[in-house]
Amino acid sequence: MTLLRAQGLSISFAGNAVVHGVDFEVAAGEKLALVGESGSGKTVTALSLLGLAEGAAVEGQVLFETPDGVVDLLRLKPRELQAIRGQDIAMIFQEPMTALNPLFSIGEQIAEVLQLKMGLRASDAVQKAIGLIADTGIADPERRAQAYPHQLSGGQRQRAMIAMALACSPKLLIADEPTTALDVTVRQQILDLLDGLQKKMGMAVLLITHDLNMVRRFADRVAVMERGHIVEQGRVADIFAHPAHAYTRTLLASRPVRNVVEFAPDAADSIVAQGLRVVYPVPKPGIAGWFSKGEFVAVQGADLRLQDGQTLGIVGESGSGKSTLALAVLGLLPFSNEVRVFGEPWGLGRASDLLNRRRLQVVFQDPFSSLSPRMTVEEIVGEGLSVHAPELPSSGVRQRVLATLQDVGLEEFQFPGLLQRYPHQFSGGQRQRIAIARALIVEPRVLVLDEPTSALDVTMAQQILQLLQRLQAEHGLAYLLITHDVDVIKAMAHEVIVMKDGQIVEHGTIKTVFETPTQDYTRTLLAATEQFP
Fold first, then answer.
1. Cβ contacts of 427 within 8 Å, gap of 6 or more
2. pLDDT tens sequence for the chain (533 residues)
3. Between helices 377-388 and 428-440, what is the axis angle to 10°?
4. What residues contact residue 399 under an 8 Å CB cut-off, 6+ apart?
5. CA 502 to CA 30: how far, in whole Å?
6. How far apart are CA 303 and CA 276, in angstroms?
7. pTM listed for this prediction
8. What does the buried/exposed string (b/e) look like for 323-361 if buried means 16 or more CB atoms within 10 Å of the residue's CB?
9. Contact 159/102 with Cβ under 8 angstroms?
10. What is the longest distance spanned by two Cα atoms in the chain?
11. CA 205 to chain centre
12. Strand segments (E) across 368-526
């Protein structure tokens, strides 16, 4: 039985069409994946089903089966649509940290849904919320129900979002990129959870994603979107085995390709850390917390060596300490024991720190949050020169900015008024190129890359990796690459460090570590990766 059918669905903003008359349907109990690159229209299509695409003009029909008969969701009054949201159709948003209210505990937010939609008393809603949290596999649910979103890991926040969405046992769950920013083992856990709950409750799932490996693992059918059109749809096994459309074939072929320039074994050391230790103060329980703080050891006894022209990958799950290690190496977190950068002691406030700061730059995970929305591209990219090359005249700065943007594949003829544009006027991949240009303009020797592709779809991620590979070959850069994606490590790195619970558990060449791992944890990471071939 068809649960939801979209017919001739068209969506436009200020007269500009972004979705063009698409047709698709979801059967009761079925898992349909809507797949495409960023900007293909898949998310706005999902949001429009529930009237959540603000400012959008929506045409066509979205027919939904309710206990009282079939209704057109696009023709319902706001109050009628509000009754369906959360009750019959629920949604998991892409980023739970922004979707969850930071002022209320997880238990309070789930209980609120139960009170509003199910009419439960406050005490009953709290107990039901704890049960839902337990159903999603969060340990110690009574304690976690009292936690606020920032006190949970990414995987736990996503589980809390799932608990909230499933509170009223909906017929249809819309999951918008539910695992995008999660590491491979947590991603597998979330998919297993959704799969189990879907079968247990008999609900249908509309999965919005750019991750084809997830589609292969999870969905029954797939619809492929390109520039607002559904270009192909059918059974997952059929589409993956025999893709008919060129765009589908492009998506399926968009995987990281190894292209590594070998570095000299006797190359000079860029970064050397010995016994690196990072701790965070935490409150002690009870009265003792009034007088002193405890400590949480985020990184313990880490040794690493990065040579000129080398790529050293650091891989591990969320919370393993890999990003903390990178921030300490950058001098952005206090640490104990020794770090030497280009042969000089680092992070001691010495005169050499400023020179080495120029040689050591960083590209963060999410360019949208790391680029100031109030600054133009020219100001963002040229900012480093005001510190490290203050003698340059404004005309020289502009020339350097243009040359660096050209180096990363952004030119004025492609983007008229490029230098005066703001970050929000670019796609995710283009923003990441701007972030790379900002780091490159001061002519560094080392780039610390903190999850540089995790927020990008497969084709954009492939383009950014190819760009980084070219820049390394042309400029002789060394990379400290932080990621949870084993495929990215395989494509980029000469050596890899595996981290777990703040400690380095394995270190060696790509071939040694990934082909003959000695640690159970490494084998677990590789096994989880193989779930997404």
1. 38, 39, 460
2. 799 999 999 999 888 899 999 999 999 999 999 998 877 889 899 999 999 888 889 999 999 998 888 999 999 998 999 889 888 999 988 777 778 888 999 999 999 989 988 888 998 999 999 998 888 888 888 888 988 888 887 778 888 888 888 888 889 999 988 876 666 667 777 788 888 888 888 899 999 988 777 888 889 999 999 989 999 999 999 999 999 999 998 888 777 888 888 888 899 999 999 999 999 887 777 776 677 777 888 899 999 999 999 999 999 887 788 888 998 999 888 898 889 999 888 876 666 677 888 999 999 877 777 889 999 999 999 999 998 989 999 999 999 999 999 999 998 888 888 999 998 888 778 889 999 999 999 999 999 998 888 767 777 888 899 999 999 999 999 999 998 888 899 999 999 999 998 999 999 999 999 999 999 999 988 887 664 44
3. 20
4. none
5. 41
6. 7
7. 0.76
8. bbbbbbbbbebebeeebbbbeeebbeeeeebeebbbbbb
9. no
10. 75
11. 21
12. 446-450, 478-483, 495-500, 503-509
Neighbours of 479 (CB within 10 A): 25
3-state secondary structure at position 397:
helix
Q: Distance between the two ends of the chain, CA-based, in angstroms?
A: 32
**Domains (range + CATH), the chain:** 1-88+172-254 (3.40.50.300), 96-169 (no CATH), 269-530 (3.40.50.300)
